[in-house]
Fold:
Amino acid sequence: MYLRGKYAESGDTREMSFKRQRLMDQGPSYYGASGPSYIYNALPPPAPSYSYVLPPFPVVRLRGLPFDCAEAEIVDFFHGLDVIDVLFVHKGGKFTGEAYCVLGYPLQIDFALQRNRRNIGRRYVEVFRSRKEEYYKAIANEVFDASGGSPRRVAPRARSADEVRDLSEFKGLLRLRGLPFSATREEIQNFFKDFDLPEEKIHLIANSEGRSAGEAIVEFASSEDSKAAMAKDRMTLGNRYIELFPAAPEELEEVANKGRILSKSVEVKDQQAVTTVPILRMRGLPFSAGKDDIIDFFKNFTLSEDSIQIIVNSEGRPTGEAFVEFSNAEDAKEALSKDRMTLGARYIELFPSSQEELHEASSRGR
Structure:
């Protein structure tokens, strides 16, 4: 609560002037019966007035986020502050690079603004003050946008300068993003079936855990071929639309030097995991989501609360991730079709997982 006494505008100053005038006029007879009578007939001064100033809604807006940004990166960006909610902003089902972040207390807004122009990955992020109305409007827009269909639907959109390089900078390589995590090199060959593309020129990218990151870098025979292949941008592979970006040889070299190229054996292992292990990992959950919400998300499948593990951090707060164990591997594989569908105003990513990964994630929160 913020209380502010408007002493300079209230009767407090007048009261002080009355007292000062009485002392000057009465002299030594102040306590006696004599003295100017108007002093005792004067109206009492008005009481000091106070006004209640409503604290601002603790929300800030972020701009310039990486297009593969995750909630955990926002939480890390605001390390030391209480992050209550993160709302990524989409337009036509595509992430705009903006987000709203709700903090625990109004006083934390100023601390959040001090992170302005700090980096997430290689991108510097701008932080702005925002208002409750803007945040609620963004939620309404997300729900309205999602109601028109799955966020994975194809929606033409002009590319921003931050999102891709100038399309004239083709060097024979394209980066694919949004691949199914079970995608194989053979499926990518079929996706680009109009081009001569040997398997060894398709480089599936692994994440930090050694599993498919849903991305790949493809080497075409010429820069002309890579430019022509951009015609496949936002076309579907399986039930996912694929984004294409011009890439440079340095990007492929960097990924290779970090050991992030998925080997053929790991690719086969991931394929087996999809078909044999009935566990999926969910990412991007609202921090307020409960087990009932997850059961409703998978309403076409038989789940109990005991089959759902919501992951929390060392402070006991939800991380936006959960593990779900299905009755059998077939159900888990079928449930992957809900990847990037929405829960509330958030789209949810689904990954094949394992008991080991579940135990490891659970232990990190203890």
